[in-house]
Queue: 4 jobs
Job 1
Amino acid sequence: MLQIFNIDFNFIKNEVVCYVKNFNSEGSIFGNGDRNVIKLFELEGKIINIKSFKIPNLINKIAYKYFRKSKAKRSFEYATILLKKGIGTPQPIAYFENFNSLGLRDSYYVSEHLEANLTFRELVEVPDFPDHDVILRQFVKFTFDLHEKGIEFLDHSPGNTLIKKEANGNYSFYLVDLNRMNFHEVMDFDRRMKNFRRLTPKKEMIAVMSNEYAKYYQESEPLIFEKMWQATTQFQEDFAKKRRLKKKLKFWKS
């Protein structure tokens, strides 16, 4: 099995290798594990987060061996890039890739586990969440900073930003589920607005988000709201169509 470590964590290399080898029988499951499985392990007084990616289909097995970077490798590399750019994400420790004659079999991404107070999802589902407006506006500034640094987080969705309240009362934001990103010299207006499309279907939240984004960007608030809301509604429509199609396919299969 190929194993690549962040040099800052070489001192725990043997223990991490052991955790990965015994992943199926040890550790505590974290989250629902619908597609990928995340487990937590205690080490040196810290909690280590190990994500086991779903075994790919035959086409992707071959693709990940010869043509594309695996999700584990991308997660590790993108985390390293984010930290260099001053963007929060749990510290990357290592990634592992297990190949057989066909291609990639299984892979793992290892990082420090970060305990958060909430994710963006709480802001969507709990309108009266404490500090709701403050957190939402600080999150928009965080996203603006991503865009200014040319970072297009393709999975910018409610569960993929961890939020921590700091001692000074401000909030810090940390990206997770990192394997889908693009990096640009400059992000244009349409791409920036489209990047908000997965976050919330609530028009009142889009109004606040567009108001805050307009404080930092050269376009007018009405235009920012229009483009942000347009991207959001298009995403919601496409998502609903996919759900209806899946239900039809399940019906015919049954």
Job 2
Amino acid sequence: MTRFPYMRGVFGLLPTPYREDYEIHTPDLRAAADFCCRSGQHGIVWPVMVGEFYFMGEEERIRNLDAVLEEVNGRLPLIFGCSGVSIQQVLLFARAARRAGADAVIAMAPARASQAMAIEMFHRLADAFQGPIVLQNAAQYAPLTGEQIARLVEDVPQIEYIKEERPPGPRHIAEVRALVGDKVKTIFGGAAGKFLPDELRRGADGCMPACEVADLLALVMERWWAGDQAGARDLHRRLLPLINLETYPFMRYILKRRGVFSTLVERAPVAAEALDEDDRREISTLLEAVAGDVRHFPFGPE
């Protein structure tokens, strides 16, 4: 029996923090996990694309999984990202997740994999990890068709969850929901939560955005569940200008302003994405529109 037999809602994706020597800043990673638990998010995922899994070595990734699990201590479900450069590496991470006690795993096919390889990977993933599997269907990683997903759900019962990210996301969420029905527990959307109300309207019951404002997206979802669609859309409209600015520097900057991260260091910074003074001023203006909705970890000074 799993600790969390039914997972739904907003699952925050942890960005990976780094020290000045570019090693993973484990205390900040723990702080981000604690932030998700104490700010009202519904679950945690690490590391996926937001966490820059492709920059990590195998040992440091597995070691920090143990740290995150210890910090969470069963307060929220923890889904471990197993995507890698090969099927063999994906399976290595899945076996590590099983040993560590992760609540579920999420994976997408390795870059340049074919659809046939992706399908094989999910079959083999079920042998390496005996718990629930989240099938991540991202556009740039051998995306599967709705029919292929439906067949996989039939053939691999451990695929209990789907994260559907083929653009346009809401349309494909509706497609997958029509094909799999109640054979999966939750269909998660992505795209940083940009389309959350439309995804919910079309059959999603979850979303996996970066965690820095995911507590507010959790409020959007909770209002929707409570039947207050107008209130959900109002908050989402006020959040959307911030979400549209989201980059790796943005995520780190917001987490630092909320007292979560102590560092803004990136392993592979992109100069064009660096925030300047005008960017920070604009972000401060946009934060004013949602500051009153924040229940925990208020936005600190610039």
Job 3
Amino acid sequence: MKALVIPDIHLKPWIFDRASEILKEGKAERAVCLMDIPDDWGMELSVDQYRDTFDRAISFAEAYPETLWCYGNHDVSYPWGKLETGYSPYAERTVISKLDELKDSLQKKSQIAFIHRIDNVLFMHGGLTAEYVSRLNPELLDADIDEVLEAVNSASDKYLWNDESPLWYRPQYKDVEAFRKEIYTQVIGHTPVKEIYEKNGFISTDVFSTYSDGRQIGESAMISIDTEARKYEKVPVMGKLGYKVCTVTVDEEETKTC
């Protein structure tokens, strides 16, 4: 199966428009969204943008009912009452109610979780390591993979709201291999990168996040991944206004339109 990966949203509803176009073009059979739907630089007062972005996510879920959704730290920070960078007290009720509405729009409750597996690919926000699995329960190191994922997905915030959890982990900054890397590839978001890349069994995809001045950090692309062969290809994505975004270096990183 080919799965389209929708990386961190952060109040950019147009990302769902581009994902829809890619699916209509037949470049993937279903989508997996790595979420982080709310919060962005200086948007704390823009409650309408929070509402509109969640509404677009919900309409996407209804249009593509097989889509899987992976909670991000910014999503669960609201129902868990955990302060987070960009957290909006003004949009708190909106986020909590819209998250419930998103869950209610899904065919199965299991379609929204911290980790999903399709064949030989694991999808999550941050990344899963053997060290974390051992911390959760040492017996899980030799358990069936679905048993491992069930343990993670049913874990409390005590085990998930920390830097080593699949919600927060940042393998981009460490030389650590993905859990069962020889069998499963992990597709992750969470950490902004300049280009999509694979390292140590992790494929990093968060290329739509921005600097504080609104400039896009990464290339403008998503991936379509063959979940059996674990091979992926980049799919170019048009920007918010219908143009491609290219990144050029002029002294410091600067985003311009092509």
Job 4
Amino acid sequence: MSCRFRFSSMGAVAGVLAIALPAHGADDRFLCWEPNTALMAADIEYWTPERRAAAVNEVFGLVNPPDRAAADAPMVAPARADVAVAPFSYGGKLFYTRGGQDFQASAQFVAMDNTVLAAAHSMYKGGNQATNITFYRAYDGGGGTQFEIDNAAVLAAWPDVADDPPSPQRSAFDYAVLKTRTDSAVGKFALGKDAAFTDVTLIGYPAALDNGARMYKQPSQRVATIGDAFQAAPNQLTQGASGGAWFTGDAAPFTAVSSISSGGGGNVYGPVFKDLTEDLFAYVAGGCR
């Protein structure tokens, strides 16, 4: 079932006091809501520099990698990504409030010029839907281009597993799609449904590197497909990198084939994108109608 929120102006500041209402034109396969109704009603800028600096890095399901000697795969070091060039320019920093706490994570434009891919565990967890959502494309120690979010959506199956321990089975549902009020002017990742890739690059804003202030890229390889989830190694992008894309291609078009969900021991798990994923992007791009 889909839903949207109505807030009081005080709810815009606290990120709470939400009442769920039936949504228009609902698709029972997806859960969609309007996360920023309160901000629009209050006409305030919630994400001040101070709030962005204080936002907690999303950590659920991502743990620190082992020492190099203990790793199952060679630990290829991540490197800083140049957010001024494609495809890294498609990505950026996501800020949001969930359960009264301000968070930050990773996201990027995918599939369409007005749709952003994020982690479902950022957008919905503990029975709380994210509010006060904003996206800074090409964030690099600050700055970037800000995009306001009109709609956020996850798979309808996600709430049933949202609070389960991290696992490949849970990661299969762990993605969200956001609709931006304005379009990306620099392009986006193509959405990939090819499960046969090997070499892949992961991107995100890990807290362990530059305190999450800059995007990093991690060369990796798909080592297994477990049900509807991929396993890749190595990975040193941990907390704060949630929602970052796995992409293939050394030249345009670059294709997002998964996103960072959970992991440990130098491994990372992400969902397999399918026809249902493509339908979710189209649904959100159309305003959840």
